[in-house]
Automatic annotation (TrEMBL):
Keywords: Methyltransferase, Transferase
InterPro entries assigned to the protein according to its UniProt record, in alphabetical order: Methyltransf_11, SAM-dependent_MTases_sf
SUPFAM superfamilies (alphabetical): S-adenosyl-L-methionine-dependent methyltransferases
Lineage of the species this protein comes from: Bacteria, Pseudomonadati, Bacteroidota, Bacteroidia, Bacteroidales
Record's keyword annotation contains DNA-binding: no
Superkingdom of the organism of origin: Bacteria
Methyltransferase type domain ranges (all copies): 12-62
Species per Swiss-Prot/TrEMBL record: Bacteroides ovatus
GO terms assigned for molecular function: S-adenosylmethionine-dependent methyltransferase activity
Keyword Methyltransferase part of the UniProt annotation: yes
Full protein name: Class I SAM-dependent methyltransferase
GO term, biological process aspect, one: methylation
Length: 186
């Protein structure tokens, strides 16, 4: 909000479960969904529900970490310094992953959350398929090797994923720390 004030622009910001807002159908020219979709079980229904909130020609910005990237399982939320810094551990089979989390004395709530994320994960291919199945089109796709948010978090300069690597399924998932999409209904 401060950004809009300093730029003398109008803007209304609502932090809410959008599906609880009943009076705002066909209202939003832009909906931001940042680091959310990888936590959603029914991604198709989730995206379909947004259509009624978009104004004509409205778009949705969606950002998420690719599932197979080193920390795509959100294991950085673990209390164990070893687990929280262990890349790719979330790709282990569920039973082994759970056993290791418990071995390192992770709280039951953390284990449950990490296993839920493993279940609801989002790969680039899965996201593209869901977009197509829900009658949206991708207006813009940008895959990042160094997530733009890492500038603030870690002082790292953002870098887009190399175009050749971005074209190779699975490999792009390993090297994409963040996936930015702009989509609109077809």
């Amino acid at each position: 909000q401060n950004f809009f004030i300093t730029k003398r622009q109008k803007g209304t910001f609502i932090a809410s479960d959008i599906f609880l807002l009943k009076d705002l159908q066909k209202h939003f020219p832009l909906i931001l969904i940042h680091d959310v979709i990888e936590h959603i079980d029914n991604k198709e229904q989730f995206l379909r529900n947004f259509k009624k909130y978009l104004s004509p020609n409205g778009m949705i910005f969606i950002a998420f970490p690719a599932w197979q990237m080193p920390f795509g399982g959100h294991q950085q939320i673990a209390r164990s310094k070893i687990i929280s810094h262990m890349p790719f551990i979330h790709l282990l089979p569920r039973i082994l992953y759970k056993w290791i989390l418990e071995l390192f004395s992770e709280q039951e709530s953390t284990v449950k959350e990490l296993l839920t994320i493993k279940y609801t994960r989002c790969t680039i291919e899965m996201f593209r398929r869901v977009v197509k199945q829900t009658d949206y089109q991708i207006v813009n796709e940008q895959l990042y090797f160094i997530n733009p948010h890492y500038k603030i978090k870690f002082g790292l300069t953002p870098h887009k994923l190399n175009k050749t690597i971005a074209c190779i399924p699975f490999i792009r998932n390993v090297f994409s720390t963040s996936c930015f999409y702009l989509i609109r209904p077809t």
